[in-house]
Specification:
The complex is a heterodimer of chains A (410) and B (258). Chain A has 410 residues and is α/β, with parallel strands linked by helices. Chain A has two domains: 2-209, TIM Barrel, CATH 3.20.20.70; 316-397, no CATH class. Chain A is built from 15 helices and ten strands. In chain A, strands 3-4-5-6-7-8 form a six-stranded parallel beta sheet. Chain A has a two-stranded antiparallel ribbon with strand order 1-2. A two-stranded parallel ribbon of chain A has the order 9-10. In chain A, helix 2 (84-96) crosses helix 3 and helix 3 runs parallel beside helix 4. Chain B has two domains: 3-127, no CATH class; 135-252, no CATH class. Chain B has helices spanning 12-24, 53-66, 69-79, 86-99, 112-134, 156-166, 216-229, 238-244; strands spanning 3-7, 31-33, 44-48, 138-139, 145-149, 172-176, 181-185, 190-193. In chain B, strand 6 and strand 7 form a beta hairpin. In chain B, helix 1 packs across helix 2 (53-66), helix 3 crosses helix 5 and helix 4 packs across helix 5 (112-134). The longest helix of chain B has 23 residues, at 112-134. Chain B starts with a strand and ends in a 14-residue tail after the last helix. The chains are: A alpha/beta (410), B alpha/beta (258). At the A-B interface, helix 1, strand 1, strand 2, strand 3 and helix 2 of A face helix 5, strand 4, helix 6, helix 7 and helix 8 of B.
Chain lengths: 410, 258
């Protein structure tokens, strides 16, 4: 069992999704567990990532040969597979000890997509039906699996995900000859449509079983193929709007197959780029930015030296300064250094007096950045009156000072 | 003039009773503290206020009605911080709420006291959220799930609703080794427990050989193996890990403390 965990956790670790949020399910009498809608991290590994779910492969045996994947069939690595009961027992035992928030189950493709999907479903079914397990389950929908199987999986899982991995069809075909976009997008559409029809059903019959209550997500590998940041954000935006995805994850390519000439040679995964993409993603999901505002065909690459909100502000000086005492919430959200919480507080605080530096500091605003873009008590009428170039020089340090990994919430 | 120092039993009900007393007698306390912490000097008078559940209840209801449930919850959470001086701070805050009732008073960042109370409550809530994840149960030989914790703030009462809901079918104890009390849930209801010498190693939180269940070590090793295997060495970032999971919490986390 120790050996299996070593192999199958190791093989699962390159999938970056870990979140356990977005689903709230209460426990039933005599049952085990519930799903907390805010998501809970149970531990953190030395790479600084959170452990929320038991992220593991059912098996790392795979019939495919995708260039970017550590589990491809031509790699000479130890292979293993769980038995259904083993994985169920492991999940329940970890859950009872509060090691984990639930299970994130994926697998290499054994024999065929349907064969694999059936094994994953057997685990989820046993957890839900035999063990009354109400914890979080995130399952992969294996591309190519039949519609019936995906339907059944959706009734047990809180979240389903189909990974696109390579952000353009041409490069996907190059790196993963057995895969194509339709094999990924078809199950994604099926899930998206079922989520919508399920919402309708549940309006009519409150007892109708829920289908993937936490929505679906996908992962894009960044840096294994030459797509521009603009292409990646455009794709993500289409997925959020067109397919109603809850999350798109960006995974900086970890060079696992160094000898493959189709892949770039990297010393370390592109962590700063990955972080900038997450910041841009945040802007789209919580700050009401469109992908074509963050980047466009002329500016198609995210600036590694500054966060995308600051970059947008410097490219759009006509938008500033924003008067914190009168501007609407949506405009305040666009000021560098001001987050969702502080934007709300600013609006709420107006009735008690003019917004001042003291207020802003107490609200957690990063004044060193925000001050160039605002009007408030200390900065009436015209504000700082600096040209974008001058602001940039003040705020952006030289390349050497950029840490390897930046916090997501800087 | 004498300064007044008020003394109470350290419970939240006790504090609310004290608030009732101070309003009734128009007292302006210089200090509010538990008996062990009250300072004594020639120029002050120490008054001991008794705990009355009914009076505490009236203050709580008044608070909810005059402001909002959110405001009232904020007070109760900040109280659990046990930070020195928190009682006087909350007293000042309550006085303002009762004098000028406002539903969203807790958002007023112009007010120094509001800011302090909100910051304190945020610290406590952050720790509660962390411990929803960092609590580690071990199965005992008599089939109770036992978890030692050592949080900065007195958060056990705030942890109960989450764990009661999640593990409704298994009896458990969450025990604070510094404050020397815990909560026992017997699958029906919860009660406080005081254990003078718990059967565990206080350096690791592990149950003693006699006390622990027969499979405990097996799953512990599987968990440690999992923790090691899921890490990506090429992405190493220990600073980030320590920021998100500070060292002071590692003692009872078997994946960090082996």
């Amino acid at each position: 069992m120790l050996k299996k965990i070593e192999i199958l956790a190791d093989a699962a670790k390159y999938d970056v999704s870990c979140s356990s949020s977005g689903s709230s399910r209460s426990n039933q009498k005599g049952g085990l567990g519930n799903a907390a809608s805010c998501g809970i991290c149970h531990s953190f590994t030395e790479d600084g990532r959170c452990i929320s779910l038991l992220k593991i492969l059912f098996s790392n045996i795979c019939i495919y040969d995708c260039a970017y994947c550590v589990n491809r069939k031509t790699n000479d690595i130890p292979r293993a597979a769980f038995k259904v009961e083993e994985l169920v027992d492991l999940t329940v035992s970890f859950y009872r000890r509060n090691y984990i928030e639930g299970l994130f189950l994926s697998s290499g493709v054994m024999v065929s997509p349907d064969f694999t999907m059936e094994r994953l479903i057997a685990v989820a079914r046993s957890l839900r039906q035999e063990h009354q397990f109400n914890g979080y389950i995130h399952m992969k929908a294996i591309p190519g699996a039949s519609q019936d199987l995906i339907e059944e999986a959706g009734l047990y899982a809180d979240r389903l995900s189909v990974n696109i991995e390579i952000p353009s069809e041409g490069n996907l075909k190059l790196l993963a000859p057995e895969k194509d976009f339709p094999s990924v997008l078809n199950p994604m559409s099926q899930i998206a449509n079922r989520i919508i029809s399920n919402k309708e059903e549940r309006k009519k019959y409150r007892k109708a079983p829920r289908f993937v209550p936490a929505g679906q997500s996908t992962q894009l590998i960044v840096g294994a193929s030459p797509e521009r940041d603009f292409d990646i954000l455009k794709l993500a935006s289409e997925l959020y709007n067109g397919k109603n995805l809850k999350r798109v994850y960006y995974s900086g390519y970890v060079p696992v197959n160094t000898s493959d000439s189709r892949l770039p040679v990297l010393q370390r995964p592109p962590l700063v780029r990955e972080n900038r993409l997450y910041q841009a993603d945040w802007l789209m999901r919580f700050y009401q930015f469109g992908y074509d505002e963050i980047l466009d065909d002329r500016h198609d690459t995210l600036d590694m030296n500054m966060d995308p909100k600051l970059a947008w502000a410097l490219r759009n000086p006509h938008f500033f300064p924003v008067d914190l005492n009168y501007a609407p919430y949506e405009m305040i959200l666009r000021i560098p250094g001001i987050g969702v919480r502080s934007a709300r507080l600013i609006v709420a605080n107006r009735k008690w007096g003019k917004i001042s530096f003291l207020h802003l500091r107490r609200m957690g605003v990063a004044l060193n950045r925000a001050k160039y873009f605002i009007l408030c008590r200390e900065l009436p009428e015209k504000g700082y009156k600096l040209q974008p170039e001058q602001v940039k020089r003040k705020l952006v340090k030289s390349n050497e000072n950029i840490g390897v990994q930046l916090s997501l919430f800087e | 003039m004498f300064e007044i120092r008020l003394q109470y039993d350290g419970t939240f009900d006790g504090f609310l009773s004290l608030v009732f007393y101070a309003f009734e007698n128009k007292t302006e306390p210089k200090e509010i503290a538990k008996p062990a912490n009250v300072s004594q000097d020639l120029f002050s008078e120490v008054i001991e206020v008794e705990t009355h559940t009914a009076k505490a209840e009236r203050v709580w209801k008044g608070l909810v009605n005059k402001s909002s449930l959110k405001n009232a919850r904020l007070i109760s959470v900040a109280f659990m911080s046990e930070l020195p001086g928190i009682e006087v701070l909350l007293w000042r805050y309550l006085k303002k709420v009762f004098t000028f009732p406002q539903k969203d008073f807790y958002q007023n960042m112009l007010d120094e006291d509001v800011y302090q109370v909100v910051q304190t409550a945020r610290k406590v809530k952050k720790e509660v959220h962390r411990f929803h994840g960092f609590v580690r149960f071990q199965q005992t030989a008599d089939n109770i799930w036992f978890a030692p914790i050592e949080p900065d703030h007195d958060i056990i009462p705030l942890l109960v609703p989450h764990f009661k809901n999640r593990y409704s079918g298994q009896p458990w104890v969450i025990y604070d080794t510094r404050r020397k009390y815990g909560i026992y849930y017997d699958t029906e209801s919860v009660s406080e427990v005081f254990i003078e010498y718990p059967a565990l190693d206080l350096n690791t939180g592990r149950l003693s050989e006699k006390a622990k269940g027969s499979h405990e070590d097996d799953y512990l090793h599987l968990w440690q193996q999992y923790y090691n295997s899921i890490n990506i060495q090429l992405r190493e970032n220990k600073k980030q890990m320590t920021r998100l999971m500070p060292r002071r919490y590692w003692k009872y986390l078997p994946e960090r403390n082996r």
